[in-house]
Task: inverse folding
């Protein structure tokens, strides 16, 4: 490459960087190019075509590497010998064969699970059994309730290694203390731990077990604030779920074809609702055993997908009533010929002590007329507790799985456990353990976050709950329309009126994803003190969570409301607010403040193939929260690769270059800067080298390229390079600014939104399928090779 060409290319990238190359790097051509995007689903976005640069590759040596890259993508599509198994996200392994008599509640057989010390878990059995039971009930009544035990819904078999031992050899509270960071003088009560021998016969029966040997050596009855090794946190979570964790109030099944199925849970305080105690399997066999069969087969196939399809054929799902679409979100998202933008009324953010008092009076009157449901009781209690406690006296509601990050040898990334709900903790995302590579752990994380996002916004749409992404997810959406691979935070916001409605109508709902897409389960947990809207002094900055009960990872939900809290001076200094203005300011329970026109009207978009909303003002808000967030193409050893529109780990992206190109001197900052420049200047040959040497990145590019190209086109409608000479109230420099469309652009934008902003098929594998079937298989193939 000539010196002149090199300088021309460098100037091109520097100019592009200053003018936000990250939304113009893809040049979208007509639909007849050699870079036709792969259509992710028949209901997905328009099939965009992707080219790398506007000009010919300056490093072009006569060989067309674009064709080589296309061949790699064709190989992924062909998936010969299942080499690129990660890109196939269809649900498989949906059935399992078991002996149903092992799950009877009236058998003395030693092989029966009610008589064993160890636990059984497989979501396919639970879901198939429950859906069949629900279908049978719904054919006779629309008011259905079901028994419940957490041991049937989340995997507690990690306790089995302990349960197989004699009682006197099992882990006890002394073991918990040994691997917790706790002073010797602190009593076991701080660890929320009691010994197995301290469980009374009445407690044993309440838990749903027959003898002490069926329980762990120690019983966790609450959250311990003390940091602990991962193995202790795992045991604590599973012990608590087995014995003390309250049941949800209802179970809701999502349906990709629209509508939901919801049933109540019987006796929230009863723990003996295990399948092996209730006779559900006995009833299932009686209903489904062919009349000409005299004996029950020793192997019976259970398939929840088959059962769910039968449910949909037999019973219509419940659809949102127009009067329950409080802010018109459901109606707006289903309109055609509009941008689906949603205007928020100021009243949605207004929540005062008078509102609270009126609600309490109404609920108390209702309680005098009829028995309240468990959800209504808890909602009334939350109002009373909020009125009795102020921001300094309320107790923290949500608790995390605080991990020991110095002494635990597997916790090499220093994970403090702040992003896991302690009750459902099932292992750190980056924790090093045998049988998992770093790339496999990253894939697992990506699956968890994608399914969380997908199922929350599907639930929110079906229930007409207005919500939008904010903070880190909004920044990651800006870059390429996907989640950052290095961030496991999902933050969403909603008006306080919607938060209150979420608590009143849906608190403690176990949401089950569409069975035809996966077996994910998510708990809606709304805090007690959502009615207090002052800045929290007791860790109650988060109002609610949408928790993946299989992992403990969650979405943080915060409500915005009007408040008399003092606005930090930086909002005025940087021009976010005007002190001379009388406009209302809304805030969450931390320190984030907004005006209505910064939020509304919400913009309709998509992220990771999931339709959702983002706030109206984007560029100034992101630059206010993250000074360099919209311009820095490197973060914590991850690099944004413009030609792929993906974030790639530094160790992986280095494979595209000669080591001598970036190993210049010993200055770490200089090395990082040099690698960053190399990434921005990547040639087609280097892109090919990267994709050819890393199947995971190739698969990721194959799966995401159509949507990232579509997002790049979307950004042309929404943003434009900032004019440094244009006077602005906002004081920080902007690389890009929110765009005001002309009439022709606005018309094209309406067409663009209606054509592309639709739910695609899942982009990531189902978690259960990945963890229990495919990762073990392909890990061994990887190791063997």
Result:
């Amino acid at each position: 490459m000539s010196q002149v060409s090199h300088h021309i290319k460098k100037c091109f990238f520097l100019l592009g960087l200053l003018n936000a190359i990250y939304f113009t790097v893809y040049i979208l051509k007509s639909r007849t190019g050699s870079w036709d995007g792969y259509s992710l689903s028949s209901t997905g976005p328009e099939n965009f075509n992707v080219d790398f640069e506007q000009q010919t590759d300056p490093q072009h040596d006569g060989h067309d590497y674009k064709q080589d890259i296309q061949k790699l993508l064709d190989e992924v599509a062909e998936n010969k010998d299942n080499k690129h198994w990660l890109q196939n996200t269809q649900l498989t392994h949906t059935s399992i064969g078991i002996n149903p008599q092992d799950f009877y509640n009236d058998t003395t057989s030693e092989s029966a699970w009610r008589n064993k010390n160890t636990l059984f878990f497989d979501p396919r059995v639970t879901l198939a059994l429950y859906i069949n039971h629900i279908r049978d009930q719904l054919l006779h009544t629309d008011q259905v309730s079901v028994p419940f035990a957490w041991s049937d819904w989340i995997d507690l078999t990690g306790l089995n290694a302990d349960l197989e031992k004699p009682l006197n050899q099992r882990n006890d509270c002394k073991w918990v203390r040994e691997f917790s960071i706790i002073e010797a003088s602190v009593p076991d009560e701080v660890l929320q731990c009691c010994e197995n021998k301290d469980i009374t016969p009445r407690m044993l029966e309440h838990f749903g077990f027959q003898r002490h040997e069926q329980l762990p050596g120690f019983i966790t009855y609450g959250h311990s604030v003390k940091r602990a090794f991962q193995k202790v946190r795992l045991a604590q979570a599973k012990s608590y779920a087995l014995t003390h964790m309250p049941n949800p109030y209802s179970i809701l099944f999502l349906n990709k074809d629209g509508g939901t199925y919801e049933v109540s849970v019987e006796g929230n305080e009863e723990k003996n609702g295990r399948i092996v105690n209730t006779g559900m399997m006995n009833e299932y066999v009686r209903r489904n055993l062919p009349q000409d069969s005299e004996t029950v087969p020793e192997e019976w196939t259970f398939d929840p997908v088959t059962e769910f399809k039968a449910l949909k054929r037999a019973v219509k799902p419940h659809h949102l009533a127009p009067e329950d679409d409080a802010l018109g979100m459901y109606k707006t998202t289903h309109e055609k010929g509009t941008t689906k933008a949603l205007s928020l009324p100021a009243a949605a953010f207004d929540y005062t002590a008078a509102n609270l008092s009126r609600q309490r009076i109404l609920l108390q009157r209702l309680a005098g007329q009829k028995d309240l449901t468990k959800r209504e009781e808890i909602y009334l209690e939350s109002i009373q507790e909020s009125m009795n406690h102020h921001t300094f006296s309320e107790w923290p509601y949500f608790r995390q799985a605080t991990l020991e990050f110095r002494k635990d040898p597997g916790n090499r990334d220093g994970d403090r456990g702040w992003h896991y709900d302690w009750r459902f903790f099932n292992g750190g995302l980056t924790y090093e353990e045998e049988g998992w590579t770093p790339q496999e752990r990253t894939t697992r994380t990506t699956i968890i976050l994608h399914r969380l996002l997908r199922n929350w916004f599907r639930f929110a749409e079906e229930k007409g709950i207005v919500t939008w992404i904010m903070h880190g997810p909004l920044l990651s959406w800006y870059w390429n329309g996907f989640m950052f691979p290095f961030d496991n935070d999902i933050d969403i916001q909603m008006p306080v009126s919607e938060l209150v409605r979420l608590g009143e109508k849906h608190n403690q709902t176990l949401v089950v994803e569409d069975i035809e897409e996966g077996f994910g389960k998510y708990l809606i947990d709304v805090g007690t003190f959502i009615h207090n809207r002052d800045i929290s002094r007791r860790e109650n900055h988060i109002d609610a969570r949408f928790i993946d009960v299989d992992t403990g990872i969650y979405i943080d939900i915060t409500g915005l409301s009007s408040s008399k809290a003092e606005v930090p001076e930086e909002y005025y200094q940087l021009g976010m607010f005007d002190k001379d203005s009388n406009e209302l300011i809304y805030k969450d329970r931390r320190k984030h403040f907004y005006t209505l026109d910064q939020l509304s009207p919400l913009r309709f978009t998509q992220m990771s193939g999931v339709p959702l909303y983002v706030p109206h003002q984007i560029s100034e808000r992101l630059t206010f929260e993250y000074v360099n967030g919209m311009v820095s193409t490197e973060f914590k050893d991850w690099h944004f690769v413009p030609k792929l529109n993906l974030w790639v780990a530094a160790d992986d992206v280095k494979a595209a270059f000669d080591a001598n190109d970036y190993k210049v001197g010993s200055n770490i900052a200089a090395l990082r800067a040099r690698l960053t420049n190399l990434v921005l200047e990547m040639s087609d040959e280097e892109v090919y080298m990267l994709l050819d040497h890393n199947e995971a990145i190739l698969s990721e590019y194959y799966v995401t390229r159509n949507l990232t190209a579509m997002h790049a086109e979307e950004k042309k409608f929404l943003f434009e390079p900032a004019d440094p000479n244009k006077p602005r109230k906002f004081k920080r420099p902007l690389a890009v600014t929110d765009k005001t469309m002309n009439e022709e652009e606005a018309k094209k934008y309406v067409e663009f939104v209606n054509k592309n902003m639709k739910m695609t098929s899942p982009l990531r594998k189902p978690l259960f399928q990945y963890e229990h079937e495919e990762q073990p298989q392909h890990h061994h193939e990887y190791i063997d090779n």
